[in-house]
């Protein structure tokens, strides 16, 4: 039994699931549904100024999430239980973005 085989297979499966979730979220955004997906613009629709730190309340942090960050972001604050995909972690490292886990305020419905 090769210990790396199940992990590799499982990583590929997780990556396929993540890609499908991203595809669906982006489709929902194109339809005008607020998905909570990180946006790279400020509240007034203009380009955001360079920002050192950004908080993301998403439960799943993907490479696509990081692609939508404002230019100049060097720190991303995420919830304690948020899941960061391996590709997102690698992308953050390559872009010198620190991922900081912190207690996020509760969402109100």
Description:
38% of the residues lie in helices and 17% in strands. The longest helix has 27 residues, at 4-30. It has helices spanning 4-30, 63-67, 86-94; strands spanning 53-56, 60-61, 75-79, 83-84, 98-102. The chain is built from three helices and five strands, in the order αββαββαβ. Residues 40-51 have low confidence and may be disordered. It has a three-stranded parallel sheet, with helices on one face. It has a two-stranded parallel ribbon with strand order 2-4. The protein starts with a helix and ends in a 7-residue tail after the last strand. With 109 residues, it is α/β, with parallel strands linked by helices. It has one domain. It is globular and about 35 Å long.
- Biggest sheet overview: 3 strands, parallel
Number of strands: 5
Radius of gyration, whole Å: 15 Å
Helix content: 25-40%
End-to-end CA span: 48 Å
SSE string: HEEHEEHE
Which stretches of 5+ consecutive residues score pLDDT under 50?
40-51
The tally of domains stands at 1
Overall SS class: alpha/beta
Q: Strand percentage, roughly?
A: 15-25%
Trace the largest sheet across and list its strands. Answer: 1-3-5
Q: Number of DSSP helices?
A: 3
- Overall mean pLDDT: 77
Morphology: globular
Give a brief description.
The chain is α/β, with parallel strands linked by helices.
């Amino acid at each position: 039994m090769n210990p790396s085989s199940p992990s590799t297979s499982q990583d590929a499966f997780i990556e396929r699931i993540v890609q499908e979730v991203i595809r669906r979220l982006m489709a929902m955004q194109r339809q005008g549904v607020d998905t909570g997906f990180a946006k790279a613009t400020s509240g007034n629709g203009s380009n955001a100024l360079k920002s050192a730190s950004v908080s993301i309340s998403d439960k799943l942090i993907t490479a696509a999430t990081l692609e939508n960050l404002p230019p100049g972001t060097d720190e991303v604050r995420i919830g304690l239980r948020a899941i960061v995909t391996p590709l997102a972690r690698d992308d953050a490292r390559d872009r010198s973005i620190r991922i900081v886990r912190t207690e996020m305020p509760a969402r109100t419905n």
